[in-house]
């Protein structure tokens, strides 16, 4: 298979709006609920944690599988990274939802695991720890985005992978700009709902 076709396939797979599909099966349009985002975080809040976790796994798989395919086809590191970029941008700018997809975190994690599992697992660990400490998924996502960009350098990965880390990290942060604004105003939603004060 030509590398260009692998990247096109990666984009189309990345563009599959699993959050929207699963929400519709439950009679809920995520675009009209909560943050209006079709990603795993809003899915978890609107559909419940089990279905939200399913959306997260599926979104991660659509990032990891194209990279796995590129590896299996023995493509160059540049084309493998290209497939990863295509999957993430397919998720963020999905033509199936008028180019208004998710924020790319879960899909980027899947790509990271395919590019360098050490970076992927380490970044996910940062995400878990930061969310546990701050109780904000957005803060954990931003911290993981920064961490993965640095970790490609720490592990001495090829230049193409370092470029992926820098560009995707920047995109994830930009996609969270509304969350950053809410954090600064003290209006960001916690991961776990806090009990109301009496």
By helix and strand content, what is the structural category? mainly alpha
**Largest sheet features:** none
Query: How do the SSEs run, as a string of H and E?
Result: HHHHHHHHHH
User: What is the end-to-end distance?
Assistant: 63 Å
Q: What's the total helix number?
A: 10
The Cα radius of gyration reads: 16 Å
The count of β-strands is 0
Helix content: over 70%
Percentage of residues in DSSP E strands: under 5%
* pLDDT averaged over residues: 92
The figure for the number of domains is 1
Q: Unreliable runs, pLDDT <50, ≥5 residues?
A: 194-198
The shape, in one word, is globular
Set down the secondary structure blueprint.
Blueprint: H1 3-14, H2 18-25, H3 40-47, H4 49-72, H5 77-92, H6 105-115, H7 117-134, H8 137-154, H9 159-175, H10 177-185
């Amino acid at each position: 298979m030509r590398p260009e076709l692998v990247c096109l396939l990666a984009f189309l797979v990345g563009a599959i709006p699993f959050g929207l599909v699963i929400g519709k099966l439950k009679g809920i349009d995520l675009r009209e609920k909560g943050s209006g985002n079709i990603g795993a975080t809003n899915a978890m809040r609107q559909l419940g944690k089990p279905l939200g976790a399913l959306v997260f796994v599926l979104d991660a798989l659509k990032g990891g599988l194209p990279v796995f395919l590129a590896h299996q086809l023995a493509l160059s590191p540049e084309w493998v990274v290209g497939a990863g970029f295509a999957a993430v941008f397919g998720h963020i700018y999905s033509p199936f939802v008028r180019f208004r997809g998710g924020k790319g975190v879960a899909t980027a994690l899947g790509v990271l695991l395919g590019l360098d599992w050490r970076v992927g697992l380490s970044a996910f660990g940062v995400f878990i720890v930061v969310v546990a400490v701050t109780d904000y998924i957005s803060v954990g996502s931003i911290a993981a985005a920064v961490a993965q960009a640095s970790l490609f350098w720490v592990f001495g990965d090829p230049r193409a992978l370092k470029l992926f880390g820098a560009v995707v990290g920047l995109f994830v942060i930009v996609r969270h700009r509304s969350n950053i604004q809410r954090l600064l105003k003290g209006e960001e939603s916690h991961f776990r709902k806090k009990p109301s004060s009496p």
